[in-house]
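agent> Task received from the user: take the single chain below, predict its 3D structure, and emit structure tokens. No templates, no multimer pairing.
agent> Plan: (1) validate residues, (2) run structure prediction, (3) serialize to tokens, (4) report one or two observations.
agent> Step 1 OK, no nonstandard residues flagged.
tool_call: predict_structure(input=
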Amino acid sequence: MACLMVVEDDRSTREMIVRFLKQQNYEVIEACDGLEALEHVENHDVDLVLMDVSIPHVDGIEVTRLIKQNHPSIIVIMLTAFSEEGILKEAAKAGADDFVMKPIDFNFLDTRIKLSLNAAKFHIYKSLLSKELEKKLKASEKFIENLMEKNTFLVFETLEILSMISEYRDYNTHEHTMRVGWLSSRIAEIIGLDADFVTKLQLTAPLHDIGKIGIPDVILLKPAALTEEEREVMKKHAEIGWKILKDSSSELVQMAATIALSHHERWNGSGYPRSLRGYEIPVEGLIVGIADSFDAIVSERPYKRAIPIDEAFEKIKVDEGELYPSELVKALFSIKDEIFHIYLGK
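)
tool_result: status=success, residues=346
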């Protein structure tokens, strides 16, 4: 049973939310101000917080920032009014995972909570990613400012897409998308691509397989090798993903569309769907292609066992200059220790 905390200073509103959540069989903790909320997260295993913005002692945005700083696994959904101009932007910078407007539509709230809990692993990844960006200064203040101004809550829109996919796809595949995002960004950083590109790739690479939502489960989740006809159907996920994303006006979603279409193209022209070769393939597609391949090799699937990491490196090495450009293979090998740490905790 998930544990939810409601942080709301208005007693009647808080009691109404608590009563609703208990009817949905959640364990519920209440807090009427920021200090009490911070105390609760230190003494209870809280999974998700419903955070009012305007609360006494420490406001909701600062409480959110402190929670995300010390407990990145806790999901925070902000409760705010339409009239609070600028609040959403500040809350997003503080690390809020989602937003529900007041007056609260409880059916909508229930949906947002369920989606967030189902995608809890990705919310953790997003929080850790935000810390990494801040620590390493990968993203300039100007880039973040432009991102927020030109693409309102774009990050949260992409997360929502991933969250929805995670409802339909197995747990291991969901973790795969997160690892591919991390690995792609590290490779891009090592080969010297600029900080803005690296940041965009971190945010968009996890969408590489979004097109699989259009592949029948009987094929996608088949616990055996695919037939030739089934493989041809599976290959369609690249174009399906591109079609889902291509019409967005956002440059980030446009990058995600390019990645979805090109991440199965291969250096020697043997890939799909367009049989591109060499630098006909967009660099983001080349990077996500090798990251995706490596993670797929080391991951267990219904139809195959997981391959040890050392063997996975050997497999990638064999295909250097054929399926993957040498520059990217060398970049992958240069972070071998990091990969062991991320994948095995060593």
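agent> Step 4: summary for the user.
The longest strand covers residues 75-81.
agent> Done.
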